[in-house]
Amino acid sequence: MNNITADHLARQACVYVRQSTPGQVQNNLESQRRQYALVDRARSLGWQDIDVIDDDLGVSGSGTHRPGFERLLRALCDGQVGAVFSIEASRLARNGRDWHTLLEFCSVVGALLIDAEAVYDPRLTNDRLLLGMKGTISEMEVASFRERAHAALLQKAQRGTLVRRVPIGYIKGSDDRIEKDPDARIRSTIDLIFRKFAELGSVRQVHFWFDQQQIQLPVARGAEELREIVWQPARYHAVLSVLKNPVYAGAYAYGRSKTIVRLEDGQKRVRRQPQRRREDWAVLSMDHHQGYLDWEVYQNNQTMI
User: Which of 168, 202, 227, 274 has the most CB atoms lying inside 10 A of its own CB?
Assistant: First the structure.
């Protein structure tokens, strides 16, 4: 507590609040309460001017644009901030670059970093060492958690039981099994797409035919558990999606796309890119469920497309 001076108290205290996903914001309310409770801690330490920065609730801390964190850095640069309050390093940053940028800014302007247990002054060698270790440990914990989660998902996918969202024409049955939709209109429409493609040999011609005949296609809206089927005029990409999806051939596929990470304008951008070669898919399980066409027909269709 001796690190806190009258100069620190004369400036503003910033309480930074963040949770990584919208689901955490809705369901993990205890974490929010703990973070907002830092306002009381700031008052107990003597601050009167307290700014709560919660613009980044529901925003990942890894390579994502975070307006709240950027506002915090601007306030530090302007010399307005005497202390930054946060529950832990992972709330402020999920990578070493952001964490050490924050430490450097605090060190230059003489601002403190304060969590629920301790007060740190980044200008002091021992405190800087502890803060650096906290950031490294936080980053390693996130990386380890991500690796374990990915391994668990891959293991479940290899069993063919990782079913997040089923395409139109299917529903989730018992034990998350993929089953054909009991709605006869939906099934017949999916069958019609494949029949017309076999007849016309072109995705665009199939789309034109559906449009000319004014035949609507089913579209799923909402979360998987509460999804609602609406009927809309046929769109080219909807027809193409059905024709290219191996699920309709009775196959279970996982890893049909890969994550590409690039630096653009100084920011990390994460994009998903389809993997066109089936040899590159992580999992491909044949005869997984009842299909709308044979696998051989599906392969021939992909060649034609």
Answer: 168
pLDDT digits (tens, 9 = 90+) for 240-289: 999 999 999 999 998 888 777 777 776 667 777 776 678 888 899 999 99
Q: Which of 20, 86, 90, 138 is catalytic?
A: 20
Q: What is the 3-state secondary structure (H, E, C) of the chain?
A: CCCCCHHHHHCEEEEECCCCCHHHHHHCHHHHHHHHCHHHHHHHCCCCCEEEECCCCCCCCCCCCCHHHHHHHHHHHCCCEEEEECCCHHHHCCCHHHHHHHHHHHHHHCCEEECCCCEECCCCHHHHHHHHHHHHHHHHHHHHHHHHHHHHHHHHHHCCCCCCCCCCCEEECHHHCEEECCCHHHHHHHHHHHHHHHHHCCHHHHHHHHHHHCCEEEEEECCHHHCEEEEEECCHHHHHHHHHCHHHHCCEEECCEEEEEEEECCEEEEEEEECCCHHHCCEEECCCCCCCCCHHHHHHHHHHC
Q: Is 20 a catalytic residue?
A: yes
Burial class for 229, CB neighbours closer than 10 Å (0-12, 13-18, 19+) = middle
pTM of the model: 0.65
